[in-house]
Amino acid sequence: MITFCSRCGDRFREELGGEWLDPAVRCRDCGLAVGDPPPMLARGPADDEVEYDLGEWPAAERGAATTALGGAEIPYRWEAELVLVVPAVTEDEVDRLFDELEETDELDDDGSVDGGEEAQGAMADLFVAADRLQHDPADVDLAADVVEAATTVRACLPPYGIERPVWRQIQGLASTLVGDLEEAAEEDVVSADAQAVRDYLRDFV
Fold first, then answer.
1. Along the chain (205 residues), what's the average pLDDT of each consecutive run of 10 residues?
2. Looking at the structure, do residues 122 and 180 belong to the same domain, yes or no?
């Protein structure tokens, strides 16, 4: 039974019944499409786990946290009230990852760095490729265009004028779409996630 969004921890709408059903259904907070559940940390003894209360973190920041955990291959699960649970043996590494996220925020808030024209161009390319892919999710060339643009987006700092939490949301949506393509997901799932990328980017390009 799936109760919480795997990206941001928000509780899914009641009509889902806790199950992964229609892939077009999305998390109300971060926009993640419902699909096959990712590997989650199984419930174990309390002394083998560490909890992080992320209740005050915005959805984009929570999504960045779980993206970082996934990249480090650290299992996790969400519990009620936006509590993130990880294995106790990974506590030091999780603390380091979260510290790195905060340091990046400080740089961006300072306004001293941004992704420049490369990030702006990649974002525009991703918008165009996702817009086309949503209508033809089986097109291999369009998929390659999405992966190329998304790879640059995920590697760049945000363009000038885009706040870091918004950029992380864009990166998260791009990562979800690329994951669909790499895992040869069903066409309706690819189409739904491509549309989510396109819709979110529409106001920024």
1. 75 53 63 62 85 88 81 88 94 89 60 75 96 95 94 87 80 89 91 92 87
2. yes
Q: How many domains does the structure of the chain reveal?
A: 2
**Helix, strand, coil % in the chain, rounded to nearest 5:** 55, 10, 40
Instruction: List the one residue out of 72, 201, 66, 181 whose CA is nearest residue 126.
Output: 201
Residue 169 class from Cβ within 10 Å (0-12 exposed, 13-18 middle, 19+ buried)? buried
Say whether both 22 and 102 belong to one domain.
yes
User: Contact, 66 vs 4, CB < 8 A?
Assistant: no
Q: Do residue 84 and residue 121 come from a single domain? A: no
- The Cα 132–Cα 201 span in angstroms is 14
Give strand pairing partners of 110: none
Give the end of a domain, one of 110, 135, 162: 110
The values of phi and psi at residue 19, to 5°, are -110, 155
* Of the candidates 46, 191, 201, the residue with the CA atom closest to the CA atom of residue 132: 191
Q: What's the domain range around 40?
A: 14-110
Q: Is residue 8 part of a domain?
A: no
